[in-house]
Amino acid sequence: MKLVIRKFIATLLLSATISTLAQEAEINAELAQSCQTLVAEEQLSFDFSRQQRELVPQSLPANAEVGNLQFKRLPIFNPHDPKENNWLFLGFNRLHVETKEQTLSQQLLIQPGDPYQPRLIEESERLLRKNTYLYDAQVFPHRICGNAVDLWVLTRDVWTLTPGISLGRAGGVNTSGLSLSDSNLMGWGKRVGVARRDGVDRKGWQIEYRDPNVLGSRWTLDLLYADNDDGRLEKYSLQRPFYALDTRWRFGLNVLQDERVDKLYERGDSVSEFRTTENQYQISGGYSPGLERGKTIRYGLGFEWYESQYEPEPGEVVPDPFPENRTVNQLWFSHEVIKERFAKTNNLNQIYRTEDINLGPQWRLKLGWADEAWGSDRDRLLYDLNYENAWQISGTDLLLYELELNGGWDTEQDASDDIQLDTRLRYYHESDPNSGTFAELSLGYIRNPAGREQLLLGGEENLRGYPLRYQHGDRRFLLTLEKRYYSQKHWWRLFRSGAAVFLDVGRAWFPGESGGDATGVLSNVGFGLRFASSRAETRRILHVDVAFPLRRPDDVDSVQILFKGKQEF
User: Fold this and answer.
1) What global pTM score does this model have?
2) Cis amide linkage into residue 319, ω under 30° from 0
3) Is there a smaller number of Cβ atoms within 10 Å at the N or the C end of the chain?
4) How do residues 210-231 score in pLDDT, each as one tens digit?
5) Sheet of strand 36-37: strand arrangement
């Protein structure tokens, strides 16, 4: 009897299970039939940067939420392009470790089940595009099933294991370097690097490590150590930053230890040297109520210990007057405002690469107080102001402005202290998709600098027709006018290129400076080529410029040839 009852119960359970499975299969089939595919996988293009994706389709339900995230990670080279489907390029694809889905997912501001917010999708795109190991990134609707919106997360990798040989020449001085780095170690987004550099001021070895998402979190870790012929540099940083516009809090610990030899210049030659030792330690935190009505407000509080010491360098001429040692221990407060008006563009600072710019104002003011009771050498009021804004004057005209002002007030001397002002106004006009006009005016001013800093102007500082650091002073201006051209040719499927003709006009000086060959307004004309890798992680653009000084003192050559890598066209 018991056996019969057991068989009866088992039969009932089996029938219920089969019925449930059948119902679920029927429901899934009905859902599949009711799903609307917006972008199928076969519609995804390898060169997707210029494709516009609709984030708010007409069929979007009112209560839409994020469904599944479909990751599509494209390799370095396109295996479906006959010009790239060869043993060499496909070999690089096989050697390269693709960025892992987890690395991408932990940077997104959206997850399955969240309310569907196009603004967060756009900001997630921008966060992904900040990574140098990605050529580009897009996030957009893939399919709608009921109120669930499945999303494509489309990315394209670049080659990140980079052995580098760098050669540069600016203002008649050569620089070089050897390096080996990987900004996407094993696809996890970690950066490691070692480099040997022979620069204008020093040469030596440098090692670095960066983890932008420690253990999958929003914490970042940065480590850097450099052993140079004139000293050493150590930087350590552990932070949980304001990683998004709606982030509510931040925290940071920073350490800087730097020992080096500083030089003062006159007409491109070093005229005095002294040894500088800097130590800086900072702990800080921040709070934000989040993004409200398109604006983010952030508040910060921190304490900073800073010490700078100066010593004569044996066998070298010392500056007169000699810089004074300084100890500044300050408690500071900051206030930051960001207006959200981001837009995509290209051929701005890069060549045929998506760039994100904010067309809204953003500024940050930091006020600090250094007190003798805290170990400072004297009481000081300190300030640091940063301001940026951009205006889309028309569909083809863009104006950008940047301002940095920092310094202090020495209460003992009742005078301003260590003031530095830098401001830059840039204008872009797009004549057509392959050419444009660029103008930039930059102004600089310093007053009572703590370490006898100079404002320099010459070949390295973009007055390209003159020697390195040819002029110096406590104020400076530089005007640059360029006509730019962007080639559509994709050289060997590896490089993008451009060209420019330019005029530079500038001057660095002290007030009341007497006339002379190296003083007054200097100017040059010239032309140059630009080369940018479309497959490697670097976003530096190689500049090859030929410049002709329009005013030529006896110690200036009639032609200057420059090779230099820059972050901007």
Assistant:
1) 0.85
2) no
3) N
4) 999 999 999 999 999 999 988 8
5) 36-37, 134-145, 148-157, 65-74
